[in-house]
Amino acid sequence: MKNRIATSLVSTSKRCAPRQHGTPAILAHTCRSTYQSCYSSTVAPPSVSQPPNADYLAFPGAAKSAFSHSLKFEQPSTHPALSTYRVVDQNGVVVDPNFKPDLSDEEVVKLYRDMLTTSIMDIIMFDAHRQGRISFYMVAAGEEATSVGSASALAKEDVVFLQYREQGVLVQRGFKLAEFMNQLFANKYDPGRGRNMPVHYGSRELNVHTISSPLATQLPQAAGAAYALKIQHRQNPSAPPRVAICYFGEGAASEGDFHAALNIAATRECPVIFFCRNNGYAISTSTQEQYRGDGIAARALGYGIDTIRVDGNDIWAVREATKKAREMALQDGGKPVMIEAMTYRVSHHSTSDDSFAYRKKVEVEEWKRRDNPIIRLRKWMEAKGIWDEDKEREARESIRRDVLKAFSEAEREKKPAMRSMFEDVYEDLTPDLKVQMAELRSHLERYPEEYDVDEFEGGKDSLTSQP
Amino acid sequence: MTARKQLLRRAMVPQPVARLFSPTVAIPQRRYSTHPPNAKLNLPTDYSATSLLSHTSQQTLSNPELPADVRAGTTKRMNLFQAVNDALATALAEDESVLLFGEDVAFGGVFRCSMNLKDTFGGDRVFNTPLSEQGIMGFAVGLAAENMRPVAEIQFADYVYPAFDQLVNEAAKFRYRDGACGRSVGGLTVRMPCGGVGHGALYHSQSPESLFTHIPGLRVIMPRSPVQAKGLLLAAIRSNDPCVFMEPKILYRAAVEQVPTAPYTLPLGKAEVLKEGKDVTVISYGQPLYKCMAAIQEIEKSMGVTAELIDLRTVYPWDKEEVFKSVRKTGRCVVVHESMVNAGIGAEIAAAIQEDSKTFIRLEAPVVRVAGWSIHTPLVYEQFNIPSVARIHDNLKKVLEY
Question: B150 to chain A: which residues are within 8 Å by CB?
């Protein structure tokens, strides 16, 4: 199993070590012996001294480039596409005879239920939007394995940055249905205090940063967060080493922040896993219109980052790759690793989107039928004899019941106190904000018929600078 | 583009004064903004004589804003970049979560603000980043989100725009977005040199503070002097709100004063009355304060009036009370800043003054703004664009004669 992963992971470390350290072999080797010395060597400028009789010139920007007398441009088409790592095929059949699950049956069932929970919650909430009960929702159908599988390989202390279609990560990490619903209904228990659109979850307890709508902004942040974890571990070696993981889509990878993030994560040697969900679509834009290279994984090589492409509908492949990536990210004092999980966005982009305007229904139906990550694990579990039709029915029913219960409880709650619209802009309310809060209150008092403040906890009375 | 940007950046590194005036080395000087021989108002600022700088230790230590122990201590002659360096060294020494990084920071920075800091505090805490402002800012936001106190440098304010998304959508909103989870990026400070230097043209002269003052969540600060720079920068770094700290680069070497050697902070969000007066209030921040002072001296002589000069210091959230108090007393107000007049700090101050009924009824004249025209920052026209002593003087006269 391990060997298989090792060969699948495209490693840049061998090529890069001499480049980064300037002087090859001896110094590079010495540098890796301790965290400290490795670290300092990286920040030193590369040596441009010329080794005797070398067939290359040590340009500072490409210290090991050999001279060639053939005028040849490298062409992407002459390089084979990166392979896709897979453990279990779409029929739930293990393709790697050496594969042994490292989870107990109960743990596997738990992951399956996490995927199922994600899927059932999505269906209910999509309908809730259609009924006008919530203002927005984003479904992750078809991508449940990418999020649940990767999250299962992380430590609780690891720091997570999400894009917005990774509710499976939250489910796997223990975000409760009530917490989902409180956020979706923006009620008084919503940690976001009624400020964010639905699906912008966050949890301090679970080390998941609150989701931000702008695409890719979380990538350089994850690099910075990972650097913080690295420095903190160095300042306090008794604390367990941690990584940051950052989820994003193949569309977000076109943003400048993606490139900035990979480059700075590579140069600062940050223990961060960049996890791309390549689901084929950025709203309506297909990958053919999004990029022309070999997906997203291949880009990592250009930045000197180890990378792997996995079958994102195979939860085992996703889990194994993330496990290995986490291990690698903590090696040599820290380094970034890229995972590109290939999947298909079965759902519309969001509740505001009708994807049949730009793709054929038959395409979606075919994907649904041919390859679904939940069915794949179910088939695997059934073959193993730990799952059957009865269990499936019971699981679906109980999850549905739990979701609806949390749904109706959250829907009943009041909106947060109105004063929270002025809070958390700064650490403390500024004099200006106090004045504005009083001004709004006074306005509401003079125009009581014009606004409905009763749905907010405490009505207009919370608008006071002395709560 | 990048190569050109790099070349320009190198060209902007201020040369040591000794080299410029060395009699044995002839260095051609090309100054596009000079003053004519018969000018009486538009004379170069004499930083060695201005009353806005503390030239003696005693003067510095008499500042009532300084804590008693600092006032009982010693001072050292420093220019503004040395004062910034001193504040950074203090922050790095007192708190191991402080990190300093940006383009070319490790060797000391193109303006020398981070000299020796990498050697003192190590390459893991003081380091170069790749050339990407959005990367620097995103990285800084991530560090701050995980309880560090990053001090990020944008090499010139003119290059901050790629980082705008991270500042506006991420840094400023982080605490608000996280809500009851309670996380913030309050540890973040971003420093950037700004303002005209006589030859910076479109991309080495900008003063984009008003773009940040439109963004709730950020504190925007601009010091006028070395003493102020040290105290305000340390306050910004220790502050639990993200701060944009803008350093008038023309003052890096020009402004020299006696700076307390002990660590100290100066209050954020508080303006300072630099000179009391009763007939007109002049409000400014950063380098134009020196020009305001020169104009005030002239007008006081010629018209027999007294003017009050206020340094905003923090341009957002700004000290309305101090400004209102002064304008209620004088009834006249002139706001002066380098950056464009449209939707600038002056617009905000003028609006706030007329909106405050207790101040509005005391107004004897319209509030006047003296600022850059609504153009970009052109090379050979800088002397006509950045408020000059003569323009400030002329507007003071207008306001006083209204």
Answer: 224
